[in-house]
Amino acid sequence: MQKSLSELAFEKEIIKSLDDNGWHYRPDLSHSTEEKLLSNWREVLNRQNVERLKDTPSPMKNLIKLNRKFLR
Length: 72
What we know:
Helix content is 65%, strand content 0%. It is elongated, with a radius of gyration of 15 Å. The chain is mainly α and 72 residues long. The protein has helices at 5-20, 34-48, 50-53, 60-71. It has one domain.
């Protein structure tokens, strides 16, 4: 599917904004499954919340609940 110029500009702007805020483009996650994306999200949240989690990573079921909450 060919993207329109405005869609490409929007995509580049979003990627730049995310990069400016500490997120980095991961080609290995492009066109990923929901499971792979959730697993990556879990890794990021666990890494960013080490002190709160006290070496007890958040279970995947908690992420699934959060994901459902965001999708409402």
